[in-house]
Amino acid sequence: MSFLSSENNPFIYIAVNEDGKTIGFAAGKGLDSDKFDGELYALYLLQESRGLGTGKQLVSAIAKHFTEQGMNSMMVWVMEQNRSGLGFYERMGGKAYLRRKNEVGGMLVEDVAYGWEDVSALCREG
């Protein structure tokens, strides 16, 4: 599996702290979908960097990138067991709209899709 294949113009933003250490990243890509223009494909922060606003800044950077490309909506898949992730996206205004079962590492997990029909509010976050 290629994380950043050229399909759908993927991109990535890296968060770096004041010491120059990489503390997280967010990746996005375009979607061929009737409902959403883009997907927040991945968001990861080191444990010690959580709760400091970096996640919001990364999501804002993804949303700004989408709007600069003329893409006004986005979605993200979150594992249902990831309660902190679900709460994070809900606090950022994401609305749950779809569920699926997915196999990850040989285990069946349930995912929830959160979506934003208008990402302009996210561009002001952070």
Can you give a write-up of this model?
Helices cover 19% and strands 39% of the residues. It has one domain (11-124): 3-Layer(aba) Sandwich (Aminopeptidase), CATH 3.40.630.30. It has a six-stranded mixed sheet with strand order 1-2-3-4-6-5, covered by helices on one side. The protein has two helices and six strands, in the order E-E-E-H-E-H-E-E. It has 126 residues and is of the alpha+beta class. The chain starts with 10 loop residues before the first strand and ends in a 10-residue tail after the last strand. It holds the Pfam family Acetyltransf_1. It comes from Oceanobacillus oncorhynchi.
Strand content: 35-45%
- CATH class categorisation: Alpha Beta
Order of helices and strands: EEEHEHEE
Span from first to last CA? 32 Å
Looking at CATH, the homologous superfamily is: Gcn5-related N-acetyltransferase (GNAT)
By secondary-structure content and strand pairing, the structural class works out as alpha+beta
* Major sheet: arrangement of strands: 1-2-3-4-6-5
CATH fold naming: Aminopeptidase
Number of E-type strands: 6
Q: Which bin fits the share of residues in helices?
A: 10-25%
Q: Which parts are unreliable, with pLDDT below 50 for 5 consecutive residues or more?
A: none
So, CATH architecture? 3-Layer(aba) Sandwich
Note the main attributes of this structure:
transferase; single chain; 126 residues; alpha+beta; 6-stranded mixed β-sheet; 2 helices; acyltransferase activity, transferring groups other than amino-acyl groups; Mycothiol acetyltransferase; Aminopeptidase
